[in-house]
Amino acid sequence: MTQEEYIANKIETDKFIVAMRTDNIVHVFYKDNLNIDKPTLKELVFAFNEICNGLEHCFIFEAGKNVKMNNEARNYTFELEILTPFKATCVIAQNKFYKLLAEFFYYIKKPIKPYNFFTKFEEGIEWLKKFQN
Question: Does residue 81 fall inside a structural domain?
Fold first, then answer.
């Protein structure tokens, strides 16, 4: 998990960490070797709403090594967007290949709220700060 020194509060399971940073950006970290499925996404939505106290926040997503998402979960993410407290979201891709893959899925089904991809964590944080009040 990048920039742990900025964590104010967190919810941690054996699969992920959902953390509220001191700058009020929610940092989501998927742990190594996670296969994201529909039940995992349901757990995440619960954690998102709990850590945000029902208020919208900006989210940054980061993954450990060898994280995958099955097709059922990928399709379910589109349904979940309305249930989440997302104000704006960015994904940190580990390399340019993952960034291209993320962009491909973005163009298949565009999110309702602002969404972007970065290979550098700090660039994602700076982009999200534009959406904070």
Answer: yes
